[in-house]
Automatic annotation (TrEMBL):
Residues 31-245 form the Peptidase S1 domain. One of its GO terms (molecular function) is serine-type endopeptidase activity. This is Peptidase S1 domain-containing protein. SUPFAM superfamilies: Trypsin-like serine proteases.
Length: 264
């Protein structure tokens, strides 16, 4: 991973025109309770799929070679697609402390076989710093091709839904103390809006500094879909990702992010 990461950094520094992370380039407007997303609005959203099974999980593009997703997705998936590009997965690195029984440390790093070329429809999302806090009540968006209602069919068009970060202590009580410090909750306590089957591994994107979108969470688990007092539970990217990513890769991605932010 270290050699690949260092090569990534060198490659990105040599690009003459580097796009900005956390921004969508097009000026245009299933997740349960969501709506169709406009083409190009969430250009870091990827679909992980396996042969005849089709779409199985979501993922987020964080550089031209790397994606982040949920660890529980990776038993079989071996390809990734965007709106106009398909690439194979070269390597899947699941967090060494991933605990399937309680969905703790539910995060995986994916290296693509070949780098993707950035365009209006393919862009990376920004990674938050370890000190970044997404306060309770923050409005964020969850996106994916998952079921449009519990135990239903997958969405044919990428869906988006507006959710709010929920107080951890409140969420922990609702879920009988199953919410660890590596998790965060988002949704609507009245129900009606949530991620669902097939959205796992996808992004919880929150607006941050410089009007850029940051990857706050990764769709992980929940009880049913969009139920009252059962919000969605996400892997907390600020806590897990920066510890998980190996030093050379993390250094490369951070400099890559700085290069992106300085290019616009």
């Amino acid at each position: 991973v270290g050699l690949s990461a260092c090569f990534l950094l060198k490659e990105m520094q040599s690009r003459s025109c580097t796009p900005s992370c956390g921004r969508y380039q097009l000026m245009k407007n299933r997740i349960v309770g969501g709506e169709d997303a406009r083409s190009g609005k969430w250009p870091w959203q990827a679909s992980l799929y396996m042969g005849a099974h089709g779409h199985v999980c979501g993922a987020s593009l964080i550089s031209n070679r790397w994606l982040l997703s949920a660890a529980h997705c990776f038993r079989d998936s071996d390809s990734v697609r965007y709106e106009e590009v398909t690439v194979s997965i070269k390597r899947i690195v699941v967090h060494p402390q991933y605990d399937h029984s309680i969905s703790d440390y539910d995060i995986a790093l994916l290296e693509m076989e070949t780098p993707v070329f950035f365009s209006e429809l393919v862009q990376p999302i920004c990674l938050p710093s370890t000190s970044r806090v997404f306060v309770y009540g923050t409005v964020c968006y969850v996106t994916g091709w998952g079921a449009i209602k519990e135990n239903s069919h997958l969405a044919k068009t990428l869906q988006e839904a507006r959710v709010r970060i929920i107080n951890r202590s409140v969420c922990n009580k609702l879920y009988d103390n199953l919410i660890t410090s590596r998790m965060l909750c988002a949704g609507n306590l009245n129900g009606g809006v949530d991620a669902c089957q097939g959205d796992s591994g996808g992004p919880l994107a929150c607006m941050g500094k410089g009007n850029r979108w940051y990857l706050a969470g990764i769709v992980s688990w929940g009880e049913g879909c969009a139920r009252r007092n059962r919000p969605g539970v996400y892997t907390k990217v600020t806590f897990v990702a920066n510890v998980f990513l190996q030093p050379c890769l993390l250094h490369a991605l951070r400099i890559f992010s700085m290069l992106l932010m300085g290019s616009h």
